[in-house]
Amino acid sequence: MILSEIISREKKNVFVSAWTDEKPKRKDYPLSCKAGGRFPLTRKWRWTTVGFDVSGSSYRIMVAYHKDVPEYQAVLGECDGADTKVLARLEYHAAHPIVGWHIHAVCKDGAEVEAGVMKPHGQRRLPDARSHHRRNQYLDGFSLSEESMNDNMALDIAAKWFGFKHQTSWSI
Ligand SMILES: [Zn+2]
For residue 94, how many other CB atoms are within 10 A of its CB? Predict the structure, then answer.
């Protein structure tokens, strides 16, 4: 299935794990080509994972934000046995020359994406790194009034982008 179909279709069995700032374990979000076979995050990050099924396939999202600086990532992957095929990364990095919310995505079917890597072949960045970013403020980009990122907000941003609902959902 391609990304737009995964986003638009109904999600079943949505499960959100507990938030933590421990380093993720392999089982939390396996990535075979990364050190330790796990999603790379330091203890400076808070994160949770969201799991769901769409049309018979299973997916996982790593939702993570840095505790000190405006850095965010929500990484959607298709579960592939004991590995993950990364399909899209929604990100905000304060350190880029042109700052703003953007997505790195592959536009091909998940079946054609190689497993275990954060940047599979063909992954594109939208908008590209030199272009103007419409949502260039970290929190104002979502018309949020809070002064700093928090767990619910981080989850809601991922929910809005990837089209899933969860218990604490509110509309943004
Ligand atoms: Zn990026």
Answer: 11
26-37, pLDDT tens digit by residue?
Answer: 999 999 999 999
Determine which of 76-90, 91-105, 108-122 has the lowest per-residue pLDDT on average. Answer: 91-105
End-to-end CA distance of the chain, in Å? Answer: 27
- Separation of CA 93 and ligand 1 centre (Å): 7
Strand order in the sheet with 83-93: 12-16, 45-54, 57-66, 71-80, 83-93, 102-105, 124-126
Alpha-carbon distance of 16 to 137, in angstroms, equals 27
- For the stretch 36-47, pLDDT in tens is 999 999 999 999
Q: Could you list which residues have their CB under 5 Å from ion ligand 1?
A: 91
Q: How far is the CA of 154 from the centre of ligand 1 (A)?
A: 16
**Polymer length in residues for the chain:** 172
